[in-house]
Write a structure and sequence with these properties.
By secondary structure, the chain is α/β, with parallel strands linked by helices. The protein has six helices and ten strands, in the order βαββαβαββββββααα.
Length: 177
């Protein structure tokens, strides 16, 4: 999943601002939801997923909990959450949309690029997108070359120059003269 961040700051146990955020989302956006203090409540579920999808939202990253994980998985709506909880929420306290937030220890500004896969999520500041894309392409090309070398039977010890490092660390092979 890749998209532009729409940030949401909610009161713990209250998802009214997620509803408000969906109104401002554009196709390709990713909801990044935090709370003003820790919350494990299921603040996002199937119905919000259906609404978000209808507005072109690509996925959700949240510090809080989610519910209806079977349904969200079946509808292929990507979610990264701290918690899964059946406990629902109220809709009673104002928060903020499209303000800087901290999610997963990272500062997320509205419009930053959010990239997520099965391994996790990264935040790319909007002003760094071009240089990060270039660096990612260079790394992918390098890894493809390394993958080819490994597939031909070369050892990582030789490709990465690790033999000298092992010697410096005092590593010896058992049975070696």
């Amino acid at each position: 999943m890749v998209g532009s961040a729409v940030t949401v700051s909610c009161h713990p146990g209250d998802n009214v601002m997620i509803h408000a955020a969906i109104e401002v989302c554009q196709p390709g956006d990713v909801l990044v939801v935090t709370c003003t203090s820790e919350s494990t409540d299921g603040m996002f579920g199937e119905l919000l997923g259906v609404s978000a999808r209808a507005h072109g939202v690509k996925g959700l990253v949240t510090e809080a909990g989610v519910r209806d994980t079977v349904e969200l998985t079946e509808m292929e709506f990507p979610v990264w959450a701290r918690q899964i909880s059946v406990k629902g929420t109220v809709k009673a306290t104002a928060g903020s949309v499209n303000v800087p937030v901290v999610c997963g220890g990272a500062i997320v500004n509205p419009g930053d690029v959010i990239v997520g896969d099965r391994d996790g999520v990264v935040v790319v500041p909007r002003v760094q997108v071009e240089s990060v894309v270039q660096a990612a392409q260079a790394r992918m090309e390098k890894e493809n070359r390394t993958r080819e070398r490994l597939a031909r039977g070369e050892l990582g010890l030789d490709i990465y120059g690790l033999r000298e490092k092992l010697r410096a660390l005092g590593v010896t092979y058992v049975g070696e003269n």
